Amino acid sequence: MEVVNSKGAVLSNCEVFTLLQDLCQQGSKGRRNLAKTQTHLANIAYDTLKYLEKTPCRNQTPEIIQRFLQSVKEFKLTKAEKLQLINLRPTTPVEMQLIIEESEDRLTEEQVEELISLVELHFSDNNAGTHQMVNGAPGQ
C-alpha cells in the first residue's frame, strides 16, 4: 500500500494496520529501516501495530469494507459516520446515536436496527473467526 496524498483522506483502522504491516515488511527486506532512521517513528509504528493486532480490524479486508459501504449507501451517511461504523462496529441503538449526528431526525428506529444488522453481518467475529470459545466463553 502506498500513500499517494497524505492529506487526501482519512484512513480506517484496517487501512492503517495494512499500511504499518507493509512498512515493517519493507524494513525487513533490506530497504531503509525505520528503526535505523527514525527511532521515535519506529516506536510509534510498532506500538500502533501491536494495538491494532488486538482489534477486529486485523480481520477486515478491503473487500469486506467495500461490501459494507455499498450496503449502507441508502442511509446517506457522511464519510466520518461510515468510518466510525467501520472502526467502532456499534451493536446498540445508543452507540449508533453517538456515531450518527441527529440520528433521531435522519433515521427511523427500523433503519437504526438495520444498520446494526449490517454492521454485524459484515464485521461479525464469527465470520472472521477472531475469537475461539474457551470453556463455553469467548476467548481472547
UniProtKB/TrEMBL annotation:
Belongs to the eukaryotic RPC9 RNA polymerase subunit family. Residues 1-122 form the RNA polymerase Rpb4/RPC9 core domain. It is found in: Cell membrane; Nucleus. The keyword rRNA-binding does not apply. The keyword Plastid does not apply. One of its GO terms (cellular component) is plasma membrane. The gene is Crcp-L. Component of the RNA polymerase III complex consisting of 17 subunits: a ten-subunit horseshoe-shaped catalytic core composed of POLR3A/RPC1, POLR3B/RPC2, POLR1C/RPAC1, POLR1D/RPAC2, POLR3K/RPC10, POLR2E/RPABC1, POLR2F/RPABC2, POLR2H/RPABC3, POLR2K/RPABC4 and POLR2L/RPABC5; a mobile stalk composed of two subunits POLR3H/RPC8 and CRCP/RPC9, protruding from the core and functioning primarily in transcription initiation; and additional subunits homologous to general transcription factors of the RNA polymerase II machinery, POLR3C/RPC3-POLR3F/RPC6-POLR3G/RPC7 heterotrimer required for transcription initiation and POLR3D/RPC4-POLR3E/RPC5 heterodimer involved in both transcription initiation and termination. Signal peptide: none annotated. Accessory protein for the calcitonin gene-related peptide (CGRP) receptor. It modulates CGRP responsiveness in a variety of tissues. DNA-dependent RNA polymerase catalyzes the transcription of DNA into RNA using the four ribonucleoside triphosphates as substrates. Specific peripheric component of RNA polymerase III (Pol III) which synthesizes small non-coding RNAs including 5S rRNA, snRNAs, tRNAs and miRNAs from at least 500 distinct genomic loci. With POLR3H/RPC8 forms a mobile stalk that protrudes from Pol III core and functions primarily in transcription initiation. Pol III plays a key role in sensing and limiting infection by intracellular bacteria and DNA viruses. It is a peripheral membrane protein. Keywords: Cell membrane, DNA-directed RNA polymerase, Membrane, Nucleus, Transcription. This is DNA-directed RNA polymerase III subunit RPC9. One of its GO terms (biological process) is transcription initiation at RNA polymerase III promoter. Pfam families: RNA_pol_Rpb4.
